[in-house]
Task: structure prediction
Amino acid sequence: MRDLSNLPLDLLRRAIERIENARLAYDPHHIVRFAAISKYASIAQIAELYACGQRAFGENKVQDLAQKSENLAALPIEWHFVGRIQSNKIGKLLDLRPALIHSIASLAQARQIDDRLAKIGCDQRALLQINSAREAEKSGVLPEVATQEYMAILESCPRIKLEGVMTIGSHSGEKSDVIKSFEITRDIFDRLPNATTLSMGMSGDYELAIKNGANLLRLGSILFNAE
Ligand SMILES: *Cc1c(COP(=O)(O)O)cnc(C)c1O
Result:
């Protein structure tokens, strides 16, 4: 009988088992990583999941990233930033030295980030967010300009180490819309020079994302909440 406990280790194991099945069905040579998105989790919950072996965590608010990463500074956690980037928080975000920013939303924003990086003398790994479902409430570049914006960031923002793209699957509730948003993003990703990271897939759609080539998932509720 399956163990359906909600202990952190069991939630983690069940997620990894499902990821592994989807990955093997897609391509046994495909490597999939995931960041545990801890925006609704407490510091104690993050520490518990860390104790189960999870090393990559992500936040969507600069203030929360600051607070949690400072509280957990003793642990060698790889912190990701996945949220909307406000101009007035760029300095604070970059000072936190996240391992990867998933959510650069435009060339103009990339230039602001690059200027700041020049001032502090740092490089920053990042992804360009694509608004693949064309949803007004989501940030990111539209698919038809994504390649052009990506190339312009590569050319004009030398301190940003751009390594791929991120998208949030359609919120419409229709599986076919989610698939379409992943396909659109994957198509762009495949045509970019030297792009290695395709960040897509959340708790409700990560198996579909893997089926469409995702290699970095962002999992929140399935890792932290009882279902
Ligand atoms: C919250 C969040 C996630 C995780 O969402 P779940 O559905 O809880 O897995 C992933 N990506 C971004 C950008 C988020 O804000």
